[in-house]
Amino acid sequence: MRVGDRSGVVYDSLIAAWPVASASTQCEGAELDAELIVSTVYCPTCEAEHEIDEFYALTCPVCGTPTADLRQGREFEISSIEVEAEGRN
C-alpha cells in the first residue's frame, strides 16, 4: 500500500488500526505493508522537483515560487496483494 502524506489519511493511525480493523475478517492475521510517500512539487523557476513538508504551503521550498504542481503526496492505493490458497489439492 502507498499512502501519501497529503492523502487525508493519518499514516500512523492506519498502521495502528489495522489489527483491530482486520480482526474477525478474512484478513485477520494479514500483514499490512504500507509505504509513506512524501509530498513533492515541481517548481517551474528551478525546473526541478522538490520535497515539501506535509504542512508546507504549495510553494517551492528553495526559491519560494508558488506552484500547484503537486507531483507526489496524494496517493492512497493498493500496490500489491499476496494471497495464499488454503486446502487446494
Describe the structure.
The mean pLDDT is 91. With 89 residues, the chain is of the alpha+beta class. It has one helix and six strands, in the order βαβββββ. Strands 2-1-6 form a three-stranded mixed sheet, with no helix packed on it. Strands 4-3-5 form a three-stranded antiparallel sheet, with no helix packed on it.
Indicate the structural class. Answer: alpha+beta
What coarse outline follows from CA principal-axis ratios?
A: elongated
Give the SSE order as H and E letters: EHEEEEE
Number of strands: 6
Q: Which regions are unreliable across 5 or more consecutive residues at pLDDT < 50?
A: none
Let me know the largest β-sheet: 3 strands, mixed
Which strand-content bin applies to the residues? 15-25%
Give the CA-CA distance, first to last residue.
31 Å
Cα-based radius of gyration, to the nearest Å = 18 Å
Instruction: Report the total helices.
Output: 1
Strand arrangement, major sheet = 2-1-6
Helical coverage, percent range: 10-25%
Mean pLDDT across the residues is 91
